[in-house]
Design goal:
Number of strands: 18
CATH superfamily of the largest domain: Metal-dependent hydrolases
Largest sheet: 8 strands, mixed
Number of domains: 2
Distance between the termini: 21 Å
Radius of gyration: 21 Å
Oligomer: single chain
Helix content: 25-40%
Strand content: 15-25%
Length: about 425
């Protein structure tokens, strides 16, 4: 395996409190030194990172790659290329594939697809319940042994709280992380936008924030009852942030993330009838957006995820409520994080930590840092490089993004995964 010398970059590693100009040395797929050249080091590859940022590779806690089952939309090959071009070196795959990741065989299929795409660091999330139906527990221990890093129910509600309790007890007994997106099925009522001014103006079925906050409150009570470790994914409103803050204050083992688009867009940004703005949870109010940013800056929200969901054109055609929700968002992850920094919502160190250190802590993996001995997962990016979101610059098969045609600032130039260069601009 090549020895790599990354020189003259601004190294930012929140775990090790590094923020200075220097070099990173890589050999045998691992970080062997930061700043000081090891004795006898002879690099096969030298990367000049002058005027660029060198940081740990990003870890995405929520992605869909559309395989197995929906390869008409995207494939592991196309979406791992998108991830590599975005500085993402590790991804968590949601269990709502087809078939659902509820048996060891499907988990092993996911790992096999990842190996064939030359992007092995994809961690399947196992289904919390069989077929995500919320009626029967999955074989969590077998799924953990097959390589699943956590269990969850994707966007599907677990309507029966007794089933949710038993699932959390089972997960706790095997030290399995539960990844939970709070969403009450009945209150959600098949809505497609926030229950607010936009929904009223255009006569669209709305989803009140209570669909999220009530489900969140119920799960938090069960965390206290079961002792389960729970990560709440893709929160969208102010009151959810407050509940997570209170839960942490009282010592519950919880963490939370927010999808990157929720930190930038609100219901006021939705272009009428443009289904690229159809997301779940829906885009909410300006007050919610500001409080999500505050929650990220204060550490109440640990991480940012892409919540990447590529779709083909057919999925986004038709009346707004009839289209499929989701944004293709891997490739806008870095520039939108940098926009938060430019808006002074967070510092650059906080932004990098929310995409590397903090997700690694959530998953309990040795990653997200440039620590000597860790796998060499590294992202190098130019924070000033502007680029236009169009077909010339886009890797994902899904072009369903509200940022299509926009000019963004910040571009990854190199991505290194376990010592292997998987992207070079």
């Amino acid at each position: 395996m090549d020895q790599i010398h990354i020189k003259q970059g601004r190294i930012i590693d929140p775990v090790n409190n590094i923020n200075y100009i220097g070099s990173v040395y890589i050999a045998d797929g691992k970080i062997i030194s930061v700043t000081h050249e090891p004795a006898g080091f002879k690099p096969d590859t030298i990367i000049d990172a002058h005027s660029q940022i060198v940081c740990p590779g990003f870890i995405d806690l929520s992605t869909r790659l559309r395989q197995p089952g929906q390869s008409r939309k995207a494939t592991f090959k196309s979406e791992t290329a998108a991830a590599a071009s975005s500085g993402v070196t590790t991804m968590c795959l949601q269990p709502d594939t087809s078939p659902v990741i509820d048996t060891p065989a499907v988990a092993e299929l996911v790992k096999d697809l990842a190996e064939k795409a030359n992007y092995p660091q994809i961690h399947p999330i196992a289904a919390l319940t069989r077929n995500l139906e919320g009626t029967e527990l999955s074989a969590m221990l077998s799924l953990k042994q097959a390589g699943c890093i956590a269990v969850g129910n994707a966007n599907q509600s677990v309507k029966n709280l007794l089933i949710l309790r038993r699932a959390m007890e089972y997960a706790a007994s095997h030290d399995l992380l539960v990844m939970f997106r709070p969403n009450d099925f009945w209150l959600g009522n098949n809505g497609c936008v926030h229950e607010g001014a936009f929904a009223t103006r255009y006569g669209l079925p709305g989803i009140p924030e209570e669909a999220e906050t009530i489900a969140l409150a119920q799960c938090l009570e069960l965390v206290g009852l079961t002792g389960c470790r729970v990560h709440f994914g893709q929160l969208s409103c102010k009151r959810s942030v407050i509940k997570i803050f209170q839960a942490k204050k009282y010592g519950l083992h919880v963490s939370a993330d927010v999808a990157i688009h929720q930190l930038h867009l609100t219901e006021n940004d939705i272009i009428p009838f443009d289904s690229n703005y159809h997301v779940l949870p829906p885009l909410r109010t300006e007050a919610d957006r500001q409080y999500l940013r505050h929650g990220l800056a204060s550490g109440t929200l640990n991480s940012i995820c892409s919540d990447h969901q590529p779709h083909d054109l057919d999925a986004k055609l038709g009346a707004f409520p009839e289209t499929e929700p989701g944004v293709s968002s891997l490739e806008t992850l870095l520039p939108l994080m940098l926009k938060l920094v430019a808006d002074q919502a967070i510092t650059l160190e906080q932004g990098i930590a929310s995409l590397s250190e903090n997700p690694a802590r959530v998953l309990h993996i040795k990653s997200g840092a440039l620590t000597v001995g860790f796998a060499a997962d590294v992202c190098i990016f130019d924070p000033e490089l502007e680029w236009r979101v169009n077909s010339d610059n886009w890797q994902s098969r899904g072009v369903n993004t509200p940022f299509w045609g926009k000019t963004l600032k910040g571009r990854v130039t190199h991505t290194i995964q376990a010592g292997k260069i998987i992207h070079c601009l």
